[in-house]
Amino acid sequence: MALSPELQTVADNVDRDGWTKVYVQKNPADPNSRVLFTVTVGMQEKFGLPELVVFGLDRETIDGMIHNVAAKLVNEKKWTGAPLRMDGILNEAEVELRAVHAQHLGEVGAINIMVRRETGRPPLQAMIQVFWPGDDGRFPWDPESTDDFRDQPRLDAPWKQAGA
Q1: Which of 30, 61, 79, 138 has the maximum number of C-beta atoms within 10 A of its C-beta?
Q2: What is the C-alpha separation between 55 and 39, in angstroms, rounded?
Q3: Predicted local distance difference test score (pLDDT) of residue 164
Q4: What whole-number distance in Å separates Cα of residue 83 and Cα of residue 131?
Q5: Structure letter (DSSP) for residue 26
Q6: Which helix (H) or strand (E) holds 62?
Q7: Sign of torsion, CA 152 158 163 164?
Q8: Are 133 and 94 in contact (CB under 8 A)?
Q9: Separation of alpha carbons 80 and 100, rounded Å
Q10: Helix-strand-coil split of the chain, %, nearest 5
Q11: For residue 49, what pLDDT band results from cuts at 50, 70 and 90?
């Protein structure tokens, strides 16, 4: 199976730069439509790190965030798979990195999986979700949070089973 023109562009960018970002938009035909989430492709090979995913922010904010997180992870080599707080990433607020649960890799990692399979790259090993605090300054797992985090699903835990 050959890559679609959009995914071929992703593969070409990875070939040229070693890694790239892909913006998944509400309406892919409209370049100004809302960004639902952004994933990296190629960080696994270039830096030996899991791919990143960020939800619910505009392109400019996401660009800075991903570049800052990637630089810190590469330079400080602190990723162990355990939750990791970072400052200096998003204005004055901290962000927290958490491993994406394996149950979600097929969905949020679909672009990675397709590009990797069709270009002979190694399979997707893992992803990191970069969480940002809500309007109340708290993260989604904080029981005192007043934010509903509609734009930031938690992929660090499995979906709850019906009846569980």
Answers
A1: 79
A2: 9
A3: 46
A4: 10
A5: S
A6: helix 59-76
A7: negative
A8: yes
A9: 13
A10: 30, 25, 45
A11: very high
